[in-house]
Amino acid sequence: YLKSFLKPDQRVLKVFTKCDKLNQSEKAKLKNSFKDAILISNLNKMGLDDLEHEVIKQTLGL
Question: What InterPro entries has UniProt attached to this entry (predicted)?
Answer without folding.
Answer: P-loop_NTPase
